[in-house]
Design a protein that fits this description.
The structure holds 2 protein chains of 2 kinds.
Chain A: E1 3-8, E2 11-16, H1 21-27, E3 38-40, E4 45-47, E5 56-59, E6 66-67, E7 78-80, H2 84-99, H3 115-122, E8 142-143, E9 147-149, H4 159-167, E10 174-176, E11 183-185, H5 202-206, E12 212-214, H6 218-225, E13 231-236, H7 257-267, E14 271-274, H8 275-298, E15 308-309, H9 314-323, H10 337-353, E16 360-366, H11 370-374, E17 381-382, E18 385-386, E19 390-393, H12 394-403, H13 425-428, H14 435-449, E20 467-474, E21 477-485, H15 487-498, E22 506-510, H16 529-545, H17 555-565, H18 571-577
Parallel strand pairs in A: 1-7, 13-14, 13-16, 15-22, 16-19, 21-22
Antiparallel strand pairs in A: 1-2, 3-4, 5-6, 5-7, 8-9, 9-12, 10-11, 17-18, 20-21
Helix pairs in contact in A: 8-10, 8-14
Chain B: H1 10-22, H2 30-41, H3 46-56, H4 60-69, E1 81-86, H5 89-93, H6 96-107, E2 120-125, E3 137-139, E4 142-144, H7 152-160
Parallel strand pairs in B: 1-2
Antiparallel strand pairs in B: 1-3, 3-4
The chains are: A alpha/beta, B alpha+beta.
């Protein structure tokens, strides 16, 4: 490719043709501030509408300042990123953006992690001239089971729109109206609840302001913890331990499993359990279902549906219910680990400790916002009492710990409680893309062939590519596996199935980039995909350190079947651990 | 933006599909398709936007985004007697604003809206080339010149004999 020579801030550099001024400057360690721009390199997601103009630079020979994020280099270009003209203009742009932005930073849920606030700090904004003339937005607040839209705080960066449309292909959000009335909204400005939104939370994960935030369940958790009549049980998802430390200043990829358990015990939870236990249980059910379908398929049963699709990810479940209702009998009927846990906690475990399910509160800590919606679904309630009462995100747990005057960094390690805290490495890797299917493969292989695996590491299933395929040799039988993360990638595999061209026996799908480690409830990555990679690494390290790495070897899972469930796919297992799906697409005039 | 709920007949859906087919079902042709559909139906209610979105495999939110961005597109059907008030320079300086306020008051609607009985809708336009008659008001294809706020009531009565808020006062 042709090399282009240019000068930025008196330094000369050569870069390939087609590079933007912003990226060139970044290579030279010149940090041009950006607001609407977002680049998640490893996932091929780039948002550069050139709308906010914060990244403006001066280019010699051009009359106007140029947005560096969407201006491409040219031969002999001379760029100034810090001339007084640029600095002045940048301040003016920021003042204009702030002129109609609410000033309630003190009580804003994004305070402290807000890109807009940080920019105001960086630019040293102390007054906003003319704000008394600014029209202030008073858009109605939209509260869904998972996500809150506060459009008064929207700066129209359109990052959420990029995630929702280009990456997820969900199409729930789009810029509507114009001028001061412009907002990002679902069709006909209906509430999120009546849109195709899957609650994946990727819009929240990239929103630079408090316009999109999660529904905060921490007050309800505090209320439950302070009620002596309640037995409060907590479960933590695998991806949480790989990211929680970031909220306390630890390096991305630092595992804080033991510290997190101590913190939860100190917060007053009666039992600190692990969703990984339920992940192992999921493998028992989903793996058995897969082998059952596979065996029938091999015997020539044309009724049986293959490929089987994983069903752990509630964002993904919402996606196919809305966008592919005709495929709703293809995914595994196994409930997600969160729901399996809740169901077992409020039946088997509640019986064991002699507590009525109504007196038990199950809290889940999840890297996910769709889990908040999932635990409210009617299928997961018994006489109106939900199996999982409240689902809080990794970020919300960090807030809880900080409120209780604890610093996670200094915590000693503790172990999860028994019996629902025991897990294998297979349960841990649920947190990363490819992990569920790898865990299932470890168990399905041994059950199907009756032989012990020489190595449990199926490295061909790991990686960050959006769509991956691999083959696993089941003792002479080739099992073809597909993996997708990101719903746009999932859509491609689903279109193949719809057209009858799918070559796979089993497919794993996760809605979020990198799987749960990149979930909408995780500490904000601020566009740095290296953080996602570090979390993935942490997950696989934890797996390697485990003595037991195959779900069917979890002693407490074995005991659960012996004492309570009988065997995988038994009638009781069906009742407690499986579910069914609905077509959700409605015409607008039906809502 | 508020909308009127309708149920589309099969032949109407087919007509919209035909517009899309003629444009090769290209998402890039969305604006053209919206133009032709609005020409046919007079406005673009939610149901029509859904049909177009489905056909072009676009999110409805995107179609709605385009409809609300361009002021030419409307989700409200025009009244039986569409009223347009010229707010071009000549009409403006000769009091078009006051005439407009009078229309808003008597019809109890804003610009871009249609009266509850479906008779009148109100819009503004820029210069009809009759500046000598400023301020100018168009009702359907009839032109009224040198209009004062006091004439508004008469214009409405002449056009539709409609009951306005002013009547009976």
């Amino acid at each position: 490719m042709k090399q282009i020579k240019l000068t930025i801030d008196n330094k000369t550099i050569e870069v390939p043709e087609g590079t933007t001024v912003y990226k060139t400057a970044k290579e030279m360690d010149i940090d041009i501030p950006v607001l609407c721009y977002m680049d998640l390199k490893d996932l091929n997601i780039e948002n550069k509408p050139g709308g906010c103009r914060i990244c403006s630079v001066e280019i010699e020979g051009r009359h106007n300042l140029a947005p560096s994020c969407s201006t491409y280099v040219s031969e002999g270009m001379v760029v100034r990123t810090n001339s007084m003209r640029v600095i002045n203009a940048r301040r003016t742009v920021m003042e204009l953006i702030l002129s109609d932005h609410p000033k309630d930073c003190l009580i804003c849920p994004k305070s402290g992690t807000c890109d807009l606030q940080n920019m105001a700090i960086k630019l040293g904004i102390r007054e906003i001239p003319g704000q008394e003339y600014a029209e202030v937005s008073t858009y109605r607040l939209d509260t869904s089971p998972s996500i809150i839209r506060n459009m008064d705080k929207c700066i129209m960066c359109r990052r959420c729109e990029t995630m929702c449309n280009d990456f997820q292909t969900v199409g729930a959000l789009h810029a509507v109206n114009r001028g001061f009335q412009a907002v990002v909204a679902p069709a006909f400005e209906m509430n999120l609840e009546h849109s195709p939104c899957t609650y994946c939370g990727q819009c929240v994960a990239v929103c630079p302001t408090g316009a999109l935030t999660e529904v905060d369940h921490t007050p309800k958790v505090i209320q439950a913890l302070s009620d002596p009549a309640k037995t409060v049980v907590v479960q933590t998802a695998p991806a949480v331990r790989a990211a929680l430390g970031e909220e306390f200043g630890l390096k991305p990829g630092t595992r804080v499993t033991g510290k997190m358990v101590t913190a939860l015990k100190n917060l007053g939870f009666d039992y600190v359990f692990d969703t990984d236990f339920a992940a192992d249980l999921t493998i028992m059910e989903e793996g058995t279902e897969f082998l059952d379908r596979l065996t029938r398929h091999l015997k020539g049963d044309r009724e049986v549906k293959l490929p089987i699709l994983t069903s752990c990810c509630p964002g993904w479940v919402n996606f196919f219910e809305y966008h592919f209702p005709e495929l709703k009998d293809i995914p595994s009927t196994a409930r997600s680990p969160q729901q399996m846990f809740g169901s077992i906690a409020k039946s088997y475990f509640a019986e064991k400790i002699g507590v009525d399910r109504k007196e038990m509160v199950v809290v889940s800590v999840m890297p996910c916002l769709a889990k908040k919606y999932e635990c409210q679904r009617d299928e997961f309630k018994v006489d109106g009492n939900p199996d999982v009462d409240y689902s809080i995100s990794t970020r919300e747990l960090a807030h809880l710990i900080k409120q209780a005057n604890m610093d996670l960094v200094d915590m000693p390690d503790s172990e999860f409680d028994a019996p629902l805290g025991e897990s294998t490495g297979a349960g841990v890797i649920f947190g990363a893309t490819g992990g569920v299917i790898e865990a299932a493969t470890r168990t399905a292989y041994e059950v199907h062939t009756g032989k012990e695996l020489e190595s449990v590491d199926f490295k061909q299933l790991r990686g960050m590519d959006g769509i991956r395929s691999a083959s696993v040799d089941f003792d002479g039988l080739e099992i073809r596996i597909g993996i997708a993360h990101g719903l746009g990638n999932a859509r491609k595999l689903l279109e193949e199935i719809k057209e009858g061209n799918s070559e796979y026996h089993a497919i794993e799908i996760m809605a979020c980039p990198g799987g749960c480690i990149g979930g909408g409830g995780q500490p904000l990555h601020h566009g740095d995909s290296n953080i996602l990679k570090a979390r993935t690494k942490a997950i696989y390290e934890e797996d390697e350190e485990k003595t037991l790495r195959k779900s069917h070897e979890n002693p407490y899972v074995i005991k659960l079947y012996e004492e309570f469930l009988d065997k995988p796919m038994s009638e009781k297992a069906h009742q407690l651990l499986h579910t069914h799906y609905f077509g959700r697409k409605k015409k607008v005039f039906e809502v | 933006m508020s909308s009127v709920k309708i149920e589309l007949r099969k032949d109407q859906v087919e007509k919209i599909h035909a517009f899309c087919d003629q444009c090769g079902n290209e998402p890039g042709e969305l604006i053209n398709i919206l133009h032709r559909t609005q020409e046919e139906f007079g406005y673009l209610p939610a149901e029509i936007q859904e049909v177009i979105a489905d056909k072009l495999a676009l999110p409805v939110a995107k179609v709605y985004g385009v409809v609300t961005f361009y002021s030419f597109f409307t989700m409200i059907p025009k009244g039986e007697f569409p009223i347009s008030i010229c707010t071009g320079t000549a009409c403006y300086v000769r009091g078009a604003e006051k005439v407009l306020s009078e229309f808003k008051k008597l019809l109890d609607i804003q610009v871009g809206e249609t009266s509850a009985d479906g008779k009148f809708s109100l819009s503004c336009l820029r210069c009809v080339g009759a500046c000598g008659l400023a301020p100018v008001v168009l009702v359907g294809d009839k032109t009224y010149g040198r209009i004062a706020p006091d004439d508004v009531k008469e214009i409405l009565e002449e056009a539709g004999g409609a009951r306005t808020r002013g009547q009976g006062d």
